[in-house]
Design a protein that fits this description.
With 167 residues, this protein is an alpha+beta fold. Strand 7 and strand 8 form a beta hairpin. The longest helix is centred in the first third of the chain and has 12 residues. The C terminus is likely disordered.
């Protein structure tokens, strides 16, 4: 079971999208995998005077995260509770830039064409997207992009209930 808790302004960390073409993806967050989540969050808070706007726990994925409110964007600091998985990715480092998360406009589309999908913080392929908070999430490195992306796609039901954006 996953849980996500907003702290303060729920829209903090999300840029306005008035000038974005309809159908283009929205930057959701940049993910940083950390070995010590409380220490990393404190370091970011001390250096940049930013606070946690949302906490996320996914025990079935062995994952805990905090989202920091950075003007116009969000930074996700997350850790895995699986030391072997952390060691595979981080080695001796305390943290590493892990992924860029894009929120897609609707289900379907070419974004996953030719891609292997995987789960958060793990290189092994998974059979199906992960469902969290009314959306599907996959982590993949699309050919030609060659950067790990977390693609967040609203469920078909969520897309039907989303109001159309006026131009």
């Amino acid at each position: 079971m996953q849980s996500s808790t907003d702290v303060g302004n729920a829209s903090a960390g999300r840029p306005a999208d008035a000038d974005r073409p309809t159908g283009s993806p929205e930057l959701d967050h940049v993910g940083v995998l950390v070995r010590d989540l409380p220490a990393a969050a404190a370091a970011w808070a001390d250096r940049f005077d930013v606070g946690v706007v949302r906490r996320f726990e996914a025990p079935d994925l062995d994952l805990s995260a905090v989202f920091l409110g950075i003007s116009g964007a969000a930074i996700e600091l997350y850790t895995l509770h699986d030391e072997a998985a952390l060691d595979r990715v981080l080695g001796a480092r305390p943290a590493a830039l892990d992924h860029v998360a894009l929120r897609l406009r609707g289900p379907g589309g070419p974004e996953l064409s030719g891609c292997l999908i995987r789960g958060p913080g793990r290189p092994e392929p998974i059979a199906a997207p992960i469902h969290l908070g009314g959306a599907t999430h996959v982590w993949t490195e699309p050919p030609g992009i060659d950067v790990l992306l977390q693609l967040i796609t609203p469920s078909a039901e969520a897309s039907r209930n989303q109001p159309l954006k006026e131009e």
